[in-house]
What we know:
Elements: E1 2-6, E2 20-28, E3 38-42, E4 50-54, H1 57-69, E5 75-79, H2 88-92, H3 99-103, E6 109-110, H4 121-130, E7 140-142, E8 153-158, E9 161-169, H5 173-176, E10 185-187, H6 193-202, E11 208-214, H7 217-226, E12 232-236, E13 246-248, E14 251-255, E15 262-271, E16 274-284, H8 294-304, H9 308-312, E17 314-318, H10 331-344, E18 348-351, E19 363-366, H11 367-373, E20 379-386, H12 387-402, E21 416-417, E22 421-425, E23 435-440, E24 443-444, E25 450-456, E26 473-481, H13 482-493, E27 504-506, H14 517-527
Parallel strand pairs: 2-5, 5-6, 9-11, 11-12, 12-14, 18-25, 22-27
Antiparallel strand pairs: 1-16, 2-15, 3-4, 7-10, 8-9, 13-14, 15-16, 17-19, 18-21, 20-25, 20-26, 22-23, 23-24
Amino acid sequence: MTISVSAANNVSTHGTKMKTKKFSIAFVNDIHAQLEPHPELFWQGDESERVHNAGGLSRIATAFKQLEAQRPHGMLKIDGGDTFQGSGPGAWTQGEVMVRPLNALGFDLAIPGNWSVAYGAKQLQTLSEKVNYPMIAANIFDAKTGERSFRPYLVKEVNGVKIGVLGFTDPDVPSRQPPHMSEGLNFQAAKVLQPLIDELRNEEKVDVVVLVTHIGLHKAVPLTRQLRGVDISLSADTHERTYEPIEVGDVWVVEAGAFGSLVGVMDITMSEGKIVDRQWELIELREDKFAEDEQVKKIVDEVLAPHRERMNREIGHTDIWLERYNVMSTSMDRLIADAVKESAGTDIALSNGFRFSPPTAPGPITEADLWNWLPLNLEIKVGKAYGQQLIDYWENEFENVFSKDPLRMYGGWLARPSTNMNVQFDSTAKANERLRSLEIDGEPVDPEKSYSLAAGARKGQPEDQIHRVKRCHVTKQIEQTTHDAVRDYLANQGDVKDTGKPPVRCVVRPEVLRSQYLDFIKRRQQEHEADPHEAELLDENAQHDDPQTTVNSSSDSSKKETKDE
């Protein structure tokens, strides 16, 4: 689907035709180290699924070449971040496996994502120096020197149009990811952006300002509304598939899915220094539409060759699709949480609402699949918590995902419990009033009863915290890791034929909720565009620095919880 808007009919008030200039932008985001084609699920406008083999850097290369050939006026190629993390080879090489294939794609620039610090600040710098295009980020600073770690923007001229591209990475990286990952870096809030936009306009004299953010669509939309002088807003982080652009005044906000399965292209027509026409298309990189580029495929095969044996090692078999495209519960995560519970021998287990990992199709389950599901292999921590702590935990999780304040929406989708826990909630209720029922093994949770629980333990996590349940007691780490748990579970269970009923259900929404933004936040933000209480993302004080503070029921407010997604 191609979306087009014309601002005017290219005729001046004196009846003479105005001279126009065109340029284009090709945009990908959240590749998550998925170098090769993979099974993918597509949907658009309804819940029906269409299955295709799709993606891979070789198909991105083909798409880029085709788009450039169709656009002799010139095209920028931009990567929105979270590129080096998310697969086994990515983890095993600290992102190095991505460098050669990425350098063959001809990117003009990229920004770091929240997972760009997965291998530490020093390795992020190393990777940024090895790719043959610049990384930009206005708000990442060296903690010792106070200097910016990356240039804040890049100015490029395409077909006579001077374009300023400004990068912004999530300022909450030190709390979203384990803090040790970003040690040595400081992340500043969106307040840094407006002076730089003004600089691009007044000093660099650019014709167009493109803002590239890795903060999620739910924050990119209100941020775009608050800034002056932005023409195009490219969003990343939430893996949203915006087949239709989101209009914020005169600005389009778009996001291009994830895993290299889609490429977005925007065509812009300028006249007398103003945008007079725009077109946007989100392109599915399906095998029936795009062949693999042979040169890039050869490079990918070469860099993956040392890892093939490990990647292809079979650890199980599934008769069903294992996927992660639902805000509330997924087949992939039900399997993982049940595996951790069985391995730990606890009453329940909890897992993160991760977004990364393309689907696993029916057939063999390999080590490569396991590392796609869980790119961090965490030791399992066990302990006990009272029922009231679990109740509080779920209320906080609901606020993280369904808050009416974009600043309080945090991390990934809802946490994933083992399937013997039954959680029912109303997403439209007020904070701390969303939970409708909570059961374990069919029995209502007793606030005063102690329950054993297990989850992967993050480095730097408080000793008395399991997942995001605070003040647990009798905690300890066991020898098993999350990967061990899944391998053992698959070995014991045999072929995966079913992963059980979804343990988390919203009583006012369909069971399948594909999008955190498009399915419910967009409508809410449109209704409240003029709301004077809308979160001010530009306010430095709007950052919630204490990652351990829970929802405050008396004030109906919350602070961000340490949560990687």
